[in-house]
Design a protein that fits this description.
Oligomer: single chain
Number of strands: 6
Largest sheet: 3 strands, antiparallel
Structural class: mainly alpha
Bound molecules: acetyl coenzyme *A
Distance between the termini: 60 Å
Shape: globular
Radius of gyration: 23 Å
Low-confidence stretches: none
Length: 428
């Protein structure tokens, strides 16, 4: 392939270099377009064809259903690694040695205490508040209790900020759930693993001994790995663009949490469960909901189906479907919701509407079923996703700051009124 792209605008032609990625992806570098063409820009709502950065963190091929973190396949990592190893890999680029992993975990534990005044902020929220709203607010509020900006030229300061948020976010996640459930806040124990401690902080009752169920722990670990990064999705792009203004790490993460909340993104896991519940209440009438999803006059979408990038299958969904079966089996739970989900998937996979549009189950189609089996309330599902995505957001923020990327500032094509003379209120 030539290494130049040519663009003809009227009489004028312009040449732009092509950039090739390590997996042979190609981009046209249009950095000089606006200046050389005297004002022409590109427009691409939803950034369907626009690369915002070069990144060496995650590779995904939506046509082939490939997802790799730093070169390692998601299948291998989900089967063989622990979440904290994957977090280290994503953030620092290599799998940790045993010593590095132990040190990373120790540093995280040493930074897990949240200023007790944060409890006052939690107390001020009504019980009806959505956990994602609370989590986003608390993450932003952490800035008030910690230095507001990180000197990114200091690896040491950067590392400290990273272990701080890796330590404190699970505490906030657990506290958010306990607040909504009216349970006293709990710190767990430093003697426990990362995910075990999270479970203890979430589930331990004040009046009984709590033992971590290893099946639930392994499944949660796997879910976190599967959610840990997904290159330039909506919330990650948000973290990078907010961070590009040199806003602090916690503020950037807080905005990522808000972006993830939406039902077209991470909020889909809650929406899927609510949809499956509605179908169950409706006598399991999957056909009715399939028809609604296909009806262009109905805004209903089959939640957990379709993906901006995966147009074949979502490799995470394959792993999660298996895990859902396994967890429910191991826990001895028979959930009619799982049967409805499987029936819906079968119908969609054989329906021309879904086949033609390449709509397949995504990561969120089965994750809610596992969370539910673990006893996690439905409004907490997206919060769990946020905790899993934390290392990815951190890795992307770090890459963006170390790469000294310029502030993110898209342009627009103005289609509003041209100049108008101001009219006094009496003349309008
Ligand atoms: N149900 C019914 N129809 C759908 C669905 C769906 N879930 N998803 C897409 N379509 C249809 C659209 O109506 C459109 O049809 P048309 O060509 O006749 O107009 C076509 O498929 C393409 O859809 P777009 O919205 O243009 O695709 P896009 O890539 O912009 O959207 C998205 C991807 C947002 C994920 C979409 O598929 C969707 O809304 N899915 C349901 C929500 C969901 O599960 N989100 C989680 C995604 S995974 C994640 O963020 C972690």
């Amino acid at each position: 392939m030539a290494d130049l792209a040519k663009l003809q605008i009227g009489e004028n032609s312009y040449e732009f270099p092509l950039i090739k990625g390590s997996e042979n992806e190609v981009a046209i570098d249009i950095k000089t377009l606006r200046v050389t063409s005297k004002g022409v820009i590109t427009i691409d709502p939803g950034y369907k064809n626009t690369g915002a950065c070069k990144s060496s963190i995650t590779f995904l091929d939506g046509e082939k259903g490939i997802l790799r973190y730093r070169g390692y396949s998601i299948e291998d990592l989900a089967e063989k690694a622990q979440f904290l190893e994957v977090a280290f890999l994503l953030i620092f680029g290599e799998l940790p040695t045993k010593d590095q992993l132990t040190q990373f975990h120790e540093d995280i534990k040493d930074n897990a205490i949240v200023d007790d005044d944060v409890r006052k902020i939690i107390d001020a929220f009504p019980k009806s508040a959505h956990p994602m709203g609370i989590l986003s607010s608390l993450t932003s509020a952490l800035t008030a209790f910690n230095p507001s900006s990180v000197n990114v030229d200091s690896e040491e300061e950067m590392y400290k900020a990273i272990v701080k948020i890796m330590g404190k976010l699970p505490v906030l996640v657990a506290w958010v759930m306990r607040k909504v459930q009216g349970l006293p806040l709990n710190y767990g124990s430093k003697s426990l693993g990362y995910v075990e401690n999270l479970m203890t902080m979430m589930f331990a009752k004040p009046n009984e001994e709590y033992t971590v169920n290893s099946i639930v722990k392994d499944a949660l670990d796997k879910l976190f790995i599967l959610h840990a990064d997904h290159e330039q999705n909506c919330s990650t792009s948000t973290v990078r663009i907010v961070g590009s203004s040199h806003a602090g790490l916690f503020a950037s993460l807080s905005s990522g949490i808000s972006a993830l909340w939406g039902p077209l993104h991470g909020g889909a896991n809650q929406a899927v469960l609510e949809m499956l519940e509605a179908i169950k209440e409706d006598d399991g009438d999957t056909k009715k909901y399939m028809a609604k999803a296909k009806d262009k006059n109905d805004s209903f979408r089959l939640m957990g189906f379709g993906h901006r990038v995966y147009k074949n299958f979502d490799p995470r969904a394959k792993i999660i479907k298996l895990a859902a079966d396994q967890v429910l089996n191991d826990l001895g739970i028979s959930d009619p919701i799982l049967d409805i989900a499987k029936a819906l998937e079968q119908e969609a996979l054989n329906d021309p509407y879904f086949v033609e549009r390449k709509l397949y189950p995504n990561v969120d189609f089965y994750s809610g079923i596992i969370y539910r089996a673990m006893g996690i309330p439905v409004e907490m599902f997206t919060v769990m996703f946020a905790l899993g995505r934390l290392p990815g957001w951190i890795a992307q923020w770090r890459e963006m700051r170390l790469g000294k990327e310029p502030i993110g500032r898209p342009r627009q094509i103005y289609v509003g009124q041209t100049y108008r003379k101001f009219k006094n209120i009496s003349q309008r």
